[in-house]
From TrEMBL:
Native source species: Halopseudomonas salegens
Role noted for this protein: Controls the rotational direction of flagella during chemotaxis.
Record's subcellular location: Cell inner membrane; Cell membrane
Lineage: Bacteria, Pseudomonadati, Pseudomonadota, Gammaproteobacteria, Pseudomonadales
The protein's name in its UniProt record: Flagellar protein FliL
Family, as annotated: Belongs to the FliL family.
A Gene Ontology biological process term: bacterial-type flagellum-dependent swarming motility
InterPro entries xrefs: FliL (IPR005503)
Cellular component aspect of the GO annotation: bacterial-type flagellum basal body; plasma membrane
């Protein structure tokens, strides 16, 4: 005799779920977990990749400190003999640097700086100093002379420029 198929009964509460249902559940959980991980990876890639500039091998330019001006008081007075007459030049000098500590340390060398500038100014040709180019040349030479002297004394030129704030010639 042939066996008759028994009608399927609804599973009772607490009864074991058939294996077919567990396989689908694990498959759905796996796909959901994979989608979550891919989403997190995409977000992290987007956040951390950004549009960063490539890192250059050149060092960053140092930040330039504000200028510090140190006047040399009193003004320099130099005498010249020009065309048989006694001539004078009075010149006010300001030293420009950027490092406050080095500028402070430099003040102990003011007598040497003054001597260097007096010797430079007194050796100039009065006629050349009457032109704008002659004055600029003298300013450049004064800058180089002071930087050279400070390099010897302090192992650092300290100043960027010698500036003439007032120049009177008669």
């Amino acid at each position: 005799m042939a066996k008759q198929k028994e009608p399927e009964q609804a599973p009772e509460e607490g009864a074991e779920v058939p294996k077919k249902s567990k396989g689908k559940l694990f498959l759905l959980l796996g796909v959901g977990l994979l989608a979550l991980l891919l989403s997190i990876g995409g977000v992290l890639y987007f956040v951390f990749s950004g549009d960063d500039e490539p890192v250059s091998s050149e060092p960053a330019t140092p930040v330039q400190l504000p200028a510090i001006y140190q006047p040399m008081e009193p003004a320099f007075v130099v005498n010249y003999t020009h065309a048989g007459r006694q001539r004078y030049m009075q010149i006010s000098v300001v030293l420009m640097g950027r490092d406050p500590q080095k500028m402070q340390d430099m003040t102990q060398h003011f007598p040497l700086i003054r001597n260097q500038l007096v010797m430079l100014f007194s050796g100039e040709d009065f006629e050349e100093l009457l032109t704008a180019e002659g004055k600029e040349t003298l300013r450049e030479r004064a800058t180089l002379a002071v930087q050279s002297m400070l390099e010897r004394e302090m192992s650092d030129p300290v100043i960027e420029a010698v500036l003439f704030t007032n120049m009177v010639m008669q």
